[in-house]
Design goal:
mainly alpha
Length: about 500
């Protein structure tokens, strides 16, 4: 199987597609979904094996590449890379940007391998579990994700929750999910479809960062410099030291990725929150800790593999990328579903082998992307920031070819700038934007199904488990703080 895939007529388009994924993923505003969509027309004119290799390769590399501008410029290349703006960017400011990205690349590859391995071993069982999630379970999953805003940010929990609430409020702009009534559109036709997540994210991170640097005009003429001379091999012992964090984050990412609609962005934030809550030094998160780099990047690539679990076993796309892939599979005569594993064993093994080899090819492709992007960092900051603003504007406009998205980007750039000036974190707002529609839709669908009763939200086993985990997540922090203070008091009493 592996020798058949390593033929030149398959390897060349495969590798070129992965390089395209690096470029698209590293460009703010261009998503992994867009990268896959660009490859699909080309794949129709190739063999099914070569076409699948290109599409799978693009999806994994684009997710990793989004971490490159997130680390260097604090601008996520893709939504799944938003968590990399925290510790990755802080490490870059400390002159360890390459080192952070080498760790990122290695963990992306390892996380992908773990995700694909899990896909191979327990795909049917995990997919069946995912299908047990109804409206009630998805509601609590969304609330649990929002609660992560209190864990993944530094500073006051109240400000983090305020930011998350504001994000949920912004997500309600547009047409009502049930009645189709217009909400907060103020008569604007462009706002009827809601505010697109990508321009909002580019504004909050990219434009806000440009404004912050403009205000600090005395530093505008400096080249960013701070390009460390770390080698890729230096990241290996560090990743090995945090191997359990990698494993836990990758398994968590696979599980979340297997839940339809959750996606790599939710997986990254979830893994980051769990890593922070279980760390011996949670106060270091957000200031440039290695654990904060490892957790989200191990999870988001594993989530890409996890999304294939319901897609292959039941024909249910786990995210937008696998939704496109399902169409490609059908075009090539591969029909996803339970019978695929019984009657199409050779096709399934081919998909698994392609996914595994992609994780290996990710390292040279990612290394080339890191080096190419690093050259940009040698330019003076004013030129880099001007380029950031240009590409951000192009990226926002290109989504719908609409100036409305550009205005949204600029507006949220100002909002992000003033929020951070007031020390209100913007990260929870991103979580609110991502999970707000899910929470609202599942809450209303659940209440309609139960005729207004809240009992099913608490009586179903999975719902009850999520509620207990939610309570523990909030209680554990003050309990740990109390235990530490009591221990210090006992130690001082003994001395």
């Amino acid at each position: 199987m592996f020798t058949e895939l390593l033929q030149i007529e398959i390897l060349v388009p495969w590798f070129l597609a992965m390089l395209l994924g690096i470029f698209v993923g590293a460009t703010p505003g261009l998503t992994a979904t867009m990268a896959v969509a660009l490859i699909v027309p080309i794949s129709y004119h190739m063999s099914s094996t070569a076409g699948l290799a290109m599409i799978i390769g693009v999806s994994f590399t684009a997710i990793f590449a989004g971490d490159i501008p997130a680390t260097w410029l604090r601008i996520p290349g893709t939504p799944a890379s938003a968590a990399a703006t925290l510790d990755g960017f802080q490490l870059a400011k400390q002159g360890r940007g390459n080192f952070a990205l080498y760790i990122d690349l290695l963990c992306s590859s390892i996380g992908g391998i773990i995700g694909v391995g899990t896909l191979i071993i327990i795909a049917p069982q995990l997919a069946r579990f995912a299908l047990k999630f109804g409206d009630y379970e998805y509601f609590w999953l969304g609330i649990f994700g929002l609660s992560m805003s209190a864990m993944v940010t530094m500073g006051q929990t109240s400000k983090a929750l305020l930011s998350a609430t504001l994000g949920v409020f912004i997500s309600t702009i547009g047409q009502d999910v049930v009645s189709n009534a217009q909400r907060f559109t103020f008569g604007s036709i462009d706002a009827m479809g809601g505010l697109n997540f990508i321009p909002v994210m580019i504004g909050l991170f990219g434009v806000a960062e440009v404004l912050r640097n403009v205000v600090q005009s005395d530093k505008m003429g400096e080249a960013p410099g701070n390009i460390d001379s770390s080698s890729f091999s230096s990241a290996v012992p560090v990743v090995w030291k945090h191997k359990w964090n990698v494993l836990r984050s990758a398994l968590m990412g696979t599980l979340i990725g297997a839940l339809p609609g959750a996606g790599a962005d939710v997986a990254a934030w979830g893994a980051y929150g769990v890593a922070k809550s279980s760390s011996k030094l949670p106060e270091k998160f957000g200031s440039g800790t290695i654990e904060g780099v490892i957790a989200p990047t191990s999870a988001n690539n594993a989530a890409v593999a996890g999304a294939w679990i319901p897609a292959l076993v039941f024909g249910i796309p786990g995210d937008a990328v696998t939704a496109i892939v399902l169409g490609v599979l059908l075009v090539h005569g591969i029909k996803p579903g339970p019978f695929l594993f019984e009657n199409g064993g050779e096709q399934v093994r081919s998909i698994f082998a392609i996914a595994l080899i992609t994780q290996v090819l990710l390292i040279p492709c990612g290394f080339a992307g890191i080096k190419a992007f690093g050259l940009i960092q040698m330019l003076p900051k004013r030129i880099v920031l001007a380029g950031v603003l240009v590409f951000s504007t192009v990226g926002a406009f290109a989504i719908n070819n609409s100036m409305f998205d550009v205005y949204v980007m600029l507006s949220f750039g100002l909002i992000g700038f003033f929020m951070e000036a007031c020390r209100v974190p913007v990260v929870p707002m991103i979580l609110g934007l991502i999970l707000g529609p899910l929470v609202e839709e599942k809450l209303r669908a659940g209440l309609i199904a139960s005729e207004g009763s809240w009992i099913p939200f608490f009586s179903r086993p999975i719902s009850l488990t999520l509620v207990v985990l939610l309570v523990l997540a909030f209680v554990s922090k003050p309990m740990l703080r109390l235990a530490r203070s009591l221990k210090k008091r006992d130690d001082s009493a003994d001395t």
